[in-house]
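Reposting from the mailing list since nobody answered there.

I have sequence plus structure tokens for a pair of proteins and want to know whether others read the tokens the same way I do. The first protein:
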Amino acid sequence: MNERTPLDPAKFRDPDITAKGERRASVDLHALETLWINTGTLCNLACISCYIESSPRNDALVYISHAEVAEYLDEIARENLPTREIAFTGGEPFMNPDMLAILETCLARGFNVLVLSNAMRPMQRHNDALLALRKVYDDKLTLRVSLDYYTQQIHEQERGPNSWNRGIAGLKWLSNNGFSIAVAGRHLGSESDADARRGYAELFADENIKIDTDDMERLVLFPEMDASADIAEITTECWGILDVKPTSIMCASSRMVVKHKGAEKPTVAACTLLPYEAEFDMGQALKEASRPVKLNHPHCARFCVLGGASCSA
């Protein structure tokens, strides 16, 4: 990895004012189109740069229950919110014992459903149930598989030994059985987006995996996330300078439900990337979580505004 300039400690201190004394940008919730639900931080892998520090031992975010998810679906209906998609991330979602029941309920209520998974053993033990869901709901269910890179060596540097073959096997099974699938990966700092897409395209062709690598929603390449590396703060003037619309930023259209260890009830975080930050905890109800989000974290700048990335489909 290239050496990076450490983050200026004066940055991202004040929610309203940047280190240079300029007004910090914020993002209004334009419409809650995607509700993310964190299923818990427990995972069968312990990836080196996992932003949420998922592992077989980290239960800082505990398993959310079917009943708790249903309460948020009820609120969406009661408040007539424009939510079209329920998306799940972890940890590894298929480690949650309620996961299949949760998926069935979300699909039955008419939502599009997106599940982020490493497609390894926790998912594969539910193959029969997933086939049954696909038969009923077809492409209303999408599984996005994390494939950190298009070579085994670099992928396993991040995700650990023996993660490549099992992940590829799960991805091939999804493709062979006609699931709506996507892949989440990244490109190295030394290569362009186009070069990375060509690398993934060659891999998918060799493995007969049916993914259009030119489709930005089917191959999602994320920027590297290092909160300790220096990055510019986003001011109100940046929207015009960068020609970026606030409505294009992830927190303009999504929120994430999390359940912290020891908490009586789940709460709503402003962003999928910031589940532990108290400043980005927006309360228990979706209605309460509709207030603007101040872009007071390096991830806001690097991932969303400057990186142009979004977790949603």
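The second protein, same order (residues first, tokens after):
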Amino acid sequence: MTLPRPAAKPRCPHFSSGPCAKRPGYSLAALETQTLGRSHRSAIGKQALARACSETHRLLGLPADWRLGIVPASDTGAMEMALWSLLGPRGVDALGWETFGLTWVKDVTQQLKLPDVRVFQAPYGELPDLAQVDCDRDVVFAWNGTTSGVCVPDGDWIADDRQGLTICDATSAAFAMELPWHKLDVATFSWQKALGGEGAHGVIVLSPRAVARLQSYTPPWPMPKIFRMTTPDKQTGGNQLNEGIFRGETINTPSMLCVADWLDTLAWAEAMGGVPALAARSRQSLAHIEAFVAQRDWISFLARDAATRSCTSVCLKLALPDEQVKQLAKLLQDEGVAYDIGSYKDAPVGLRIWCGATVEPEDVRVLLQWLDWGRAQLGQA
């Protein structure tokens, strides 16, 4: 069967799940570049970095006593920093249901080799039983499974009176989902996800309970420089928090061009209406895909439960041979319709469409018309 070629293409075909699309209307000319070529320790450099911290904190709506800092090595560096700095005093419940969550499980079990770890796993498309999690232990999990399109539905399963820390990889959720910050003692994310910033830098958010752990606990293993958030406090015998990290005094040299890019996208996020408006854009894109899938029997969500569907990294299964799914993704890329929408290399073969706030919902709607056309080009009725 042949279908007429769709008349329109997405205005922006960037649907990659990371690095993600730049904000609508993005231009390098809009960046404030007076910091370029200057030291990040100069007054102008420190001012820009401090503003990146304070504006991110404000726009996320963090409680006043939560700290937010810029750290090396993207979300991976931020999560490694949290795991290596904070885990050890309590047993750990580690959750994994897709690639990155399973990476943190491996860190806890195979690298840190902690003696008291309970692992809760689920296959791609499902969540582990959250009711089994004991919040009096430390809990390590990803809010949104970027490679499976499965996210936790809410934070109700996290006890308010918990004794342990919750350590959350929030990289595909921050700025696209309204997170219950009082449930999260540590959260990490990267600039290149929900707001389409540039790579290489991570963000770590710490609750007062997490800070108290850092001050009272010294891990027994060597700590690389880029993970160190404290120094020994000879007066108290504990540790002194490096407060400078949370004022933009970064551990290593940051890219000031990336900082300028981040400040630009934060200004856009505020102009759009902040997190509530950004999350609404992501949900609108997901709604377009839900309506499309509901009318077709050859495509479905990898997330089996609608309540756990991600509104950012939307992962889809197709009733096609794996090779044809890959051909479809390449066809759409060659047509300039959708770039980088093949599933993650470790995930089941399918399509993954980024629907974060920097993607126009109308572009998602237009893209979906091309899925029908592309499938017909492959000889599928």
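Reply #1 (J.P.):
I read it the same way you do. The chain has a mean pLDDT of 97.
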